[in-house]
Specification:
334 residues; globular; 22% strand; two-stranded antiparallel ribbon; 31% helix; alpha/beta; 11 strands
């Protein structure tokens, strides 16, 4: 990881720095994959090292409760993510499946009830995407992020450098859970989230190529445009403390940006909800990221797999956009 070069230009992605500092244009997929490895390495400079197989344990899924809805079953479960740690989650399985179905990892926004909100148990209908997708025939799994819902753990005491990386690992193990289910087609798995869940969906997709499609709602913009360049909101213990401890919460010192996060997911399908009035993630910074990633999609001849919509609202996931997003997923994961 420490051998990866640092890129000061996070916007123009189609170049790669080779050993010795020689910068060359990227003209092929193989050359892009070298740049992509550098992106993952530089993300780990901030998030901490991605866990290895030493943390992988049997899932040991336990069902704690079960509730029947109109056309789905909702199970409260826990699963083992690593030695000594169990993640609480809600699993929703549609009734009358005719065969293995597509599945979605549903990551919650910033809310004290955590997983319960996407699972359909919170007050905000626009956040109940695990329930909505189950009603459309997707198997859905909504886990708690560290510090939310029923998941009170200290990732730093467990050896992590960030809650973000602990979340990535837990979400990868959630994909393991989905792939273990007879109701799920293991080749048709996506991730969706709003706000906190919107960037966590991107992060897990970067590190796990089993995520074939992503819906990210109000989840990111360029670090340079986030709160006018003040990254303190990204640097507390719920995210990545190294942002302030090692990089002074300064975008110009960061080893990565969301331009590269988006690029690292190419050529998989990504749907972006970026409202015009989002006070958390200002729109022009989202457009910067889309413009930066588009040439990478074009390199793969996959420009149609990156879709962005900009409803006239604030930090929300309105019904007409959710309908567009679910249709996008049905095409991407059919």
């Amino acid at each position: 990881m420490s051998d990866a070069p640092i890129y000061r230009d996070h916007h123009h992605l189609l170049h790669v720095i080779h050993e010795g500092g020689d910068r060359q244009p990227v003209t092929s997929v193989d050359e892009w994959l070298v740049r992509r490895e550098h992106i993952l390495a530089n993300m780990q400079r901030v998030m901490g090292q991605h866990p290895g197989e030493e943390r992988r344990v049997p899932l040991d899924v336990e069902v704690l409760e079960e509730e029947t809805g109109d056309d789905w079953v909702r199970r409260k479960i826990t699963y083992a993510s690593e030695p000594g740690d169990r993640v609480p989650a809600y699993l929703l399985v549609p009734d009358d499946l005719e065969g293995p179905a597509a599945a979605m990892l549903c990551l919650h926004p910033t809310t004290t009830i955590g997983k319960a909100e996407p699972a359909g148990m919170g007050p905000r209908v626009s956040r109940q995407y695990a329930r909505e997708l189950a009603e459309r025939g997707f198997v859905t799994l909504a886990p708690d992020y560290p510090g939310y819902g029923e998941y009170d753990i200290d990732p730093y005491a467990m050896g992590y450098a960030s809650a973000t990386m602990k979340g990535i690992w837990n979400h990868q193990r959630a994909i393991d859970v989905l792939q273990s289910l007879p109701e799920v087609d293991p080749e048709r798995i996506g991730a969706v989230g709003h706000s906190l869940g919107g960037h966590n969906a991107l992060f897990v997709a970067v590190f796990d190529e089993r995520v074939r499609a992503v819906v990210t709602s109000c989840g990111f913009n360029s670090f340079f445009k986030y709160m006018e360049g003040d990254l303190s909101g990204w640097s507390h213990k719920g995210y990545m403390p190294r942002i302030i401890n090692e990089y002074d919460a300064d975008p110009s010192k960061m080893p990565f940006d969301f331009t590269e996060v988006l690029g690292a997911i190419v050529p998989r399908h990504v749907f972006i909800n970026a409202p015009t009035g989002d006070a958390n993630f200002e729109l022009s910074g989202v457009i910067d990221c889309i413009e930066a990633a588009t040439p990478v999609y074009e390199l793969y001849d996959a420009a149609d797999r990156l879709v962005a919509v900009h409803p006239e609202c604030g930090h929300d996931f309105p019904p007409e956009v959710r309908e567009q997003a679910w249709e996008f997923l049905e095409r991407a994961l059919r």
